[in-house]
Structures are given as C-alpha cells and as structure tokens.
Amino acid sequence: MNKEQLWEKFAEVFTKLDLKKGIYAAPGRVNLIGEHTDYNDGFVLPMAIEKEITMLAQLRNDQQVKIYSLDYDKLVEFDLLDLSYDKTNIWVNYLKGVLTELQKVEQQLQGVNLMFTGNIPQGSGLSSSAALEVATALAITDLNNIELNGVEMALLAQRAENNFVGVQCGIMDQYISRLGQKDQALLIDCRSNEYELVPFANPDYQIVICNSKVERGLVDSEYNQRRQECNQAVKFFQAKENSSIQALRDLKLATVEQYKADLPANVYKRAHHVVSENERVLASKEALAQNEMLQFGKLMNASHLSLSRDYEVSCSELDILVEIAQKEGAAGARMTGAGFGGCTVNLVKKEAVAEFTAAIKKEYKKRTNLSADVYVSNPGPGARKL
Ligand code: ADP
Ligand code: MG
Predict the structure, then answer these.
(1) 27, 43, 70, 207: which is deepest, by most CB within 10 A?
(2) CA of 53, nearest ligand number
(3) Residue 26: CB within 6 Å of ligand 1?
(4) Is pLDDT of 35 > 90?
(5) Cα-to-chain-centroid distance, residue 167
(6) Which residues are CB-neighbours of 375 under 8 A, at least 6 positions away?
(7) Is the entire prediction scored with pTM above 0.90?
C-alpha cells in the first residue's frame, strides 16, 4: 500500500479527528559482522535493511490508545493509565513498553490512534521487534513534542524491550534502527555505547540475506551457557593476568593463545571466538573505509568459521547455506544473529545476484528440503518521518 492508501485505511478504522498526525518508518537490520560480542563489551557492525515498519499516528482528545495492526487485522484499545502486559496480543507489548518508558520521561502523554504494517520477517533475527519499538517511539515523541536525540530514543526503545517485553537484548538493534543511514553501516562500541558510521556503498556489491527458515529453538539455554563460559574466561584472566580485565573485550588474541593449555577446552574456544571476532569487526571497518570488499568478505568467512567451530552456535542448515554461498562465488558469507537458525548474510557481486539467489534456493532445498527466503538489500536509512 502506498501512503495515500494507508491513510484511507486509517480513516476507515478510526473516527475522523482534526488533530496532529504523521507517518513514520523504522527499519529492521542485519548484523554484517560482530556476533556474540555485544554482551562481552565488544563491537558490532550492523546495517539497516530496506524492510521496515510503517506507522500512521494521530493524537486523540482523550487518554485512550487505539492500535490497529494491519498485518494481523486486529484492533486493540487501552487507557494510557492502564499499561498492563497483554497476554493475548503479544505484539501490543512492544508498543506498550515504549509508552511505559515514555511516560517516565513525559508524564502528560496524549491519547493516540495508531495503525502499522511491516515487511520485516518476524522472528528471523532481522529485528522486526526493534523496528516496531523505534517506529512507536518516533511517532509518539513527534506527536507529543518530546525532544529525544537518536541515542536517547534508541536506549529508551531498548529499555522497552528489556523491561516490558522481557527480552534482555543489547543496544544494537534499536541503535541501528534509529541511527542507521543510507549507504552506511554502523560500528557500535557496546561498552561505551558510542557509534560511528562506516561507508558501505560499493556499486559492484550487494548484501544478500538468506533466511534458513529454521526456528531459533535452542537459543535461550545455549545463550545463557555461552554467557557463563565467557564470564568464566574473564574470571580466569583476571586471576592470571590482570585484575582490571572487565570483559573479553579487554583481551588480546595472543593472551588467549598463551593460556590455551590451562583453560577448559570449551572456555578457550569461546574466548578465542569473542576476542578474534572483535578484531575482525575493527578490521572490517578499515576494509570498508578503504573500499576493500574482498578483504571484508574474507573476514565474514572467518567469522562464520569461528562461530561454527569455536562458539558452536551455528547449525547444519546455516553451515549448508554458507557452504553453498561460498561455492557460488560469494565474496563473504556468514550466519548472522544469535544462531541455531535465522539468517545468513552474504556479500555478492551485483551482477551475480540473480544467479546466486536461484542457486541458493535450489541447492538448499535439495540438501535440507527447506525453502530458503532470499532478500537483497543495500544499507537503508534509519527511522524517519515520511
Ligand atoms: P525479531 O525481532 O528477530 O523479528 P522478535 O521475536 O524479537 O523477532 O520480534 C517479533 C515480534 O515482533 C512478533 O512476534 C510480533 O509480536 C512483533 N512484530 C514484528 N513485526 C510486526 C508486524 N508487522 N505486525 C505486528 N507485530 C509485529
Ligand atoms: Mg527482536
């Protein structure tokens, strides 16, 4: 639907009002490199994708909030003074979480009519949830004249997901959805929360995302175990090397290697992944800044190997997708997101994208009996008023 059609639908759903309104968008994202580094105080390098949540919003004269999900064809209503968790309509909680956090900043929020739709695949690791939160935050702050800068808004959206939805995500998803820019990736320092735009606009290459369609089932338990192993490594190095070591971020690869024999094998492998991955993110930033796409691709390949063998968060389907991609001539291919399913991200010559896509679908189907979805995207813009 285009903008006009969306407003027509909005007029069908809600009573006509003569109050301030606007249309807002916030994108999903793909992490180019830097996996499982965020909770180790490290670096990540995501880009916004050209898939987003679009939200129409208009103030009301009362304290009511009415939200129409176009994709679920469902209207939900509640009072701003009663922001309780919705057990039936889980999607409402992303918006309620943002409203709750905004009420801590600005007590006098006005009621609002909202309608939204999105084309980010849900639950595939492309962060449709952060896009929904950021779109909501942008709409509500704009309509209520609340001044929040980009970082403040991203952090507010993250708190919504942490506190209200109950998902302990880091800052990456909301940061990139809010602060991303066209033809740029975003280097984020997950210790200081500082960020830096990194140019990504080589006309010869394109980012291709392959959705394995494998549900990320194991994530929670395995994730907690990895975090524990990382903590174990930090404690070890604090005792052996330097008590000022706070996180794996503070280690050099040579130090990890030095203690290989003294560490439990799995703890060594986890530390090796995180420390080497941080180095790869920083090297990727340099490669992209120098327009050295082949070098960046090599770093992506090394990242996948490390995630698969050392961090052990891949699965056979993701490994197969990466293997096919590399065979089909991708300059780089790796799993992206937490692992055990979800998507891979690939760096592909633009002229080869069509052939690449067809080959991935065919080979993946042959080997797994699953139908991969493939999305081609350049780094898109971050959240904005349309
Ligand atoms: P991811 O962020 O990786 O896509 P999550 O499980 O964190 O996966 O978030 C997905 C949830 O976000 C969905 O289950 C739904 O509640 C909400 N959501 C995302 N996009 C939409 C949409 N277009 N319409 C309604 N709800 C959506
Ligand atoms: Mg999410």
Answers:
(1) 27
(2) 1
(3) no
(4) yes
(5) 13
(6) 49, 51, 121, 208, 209, 211
(7) yes
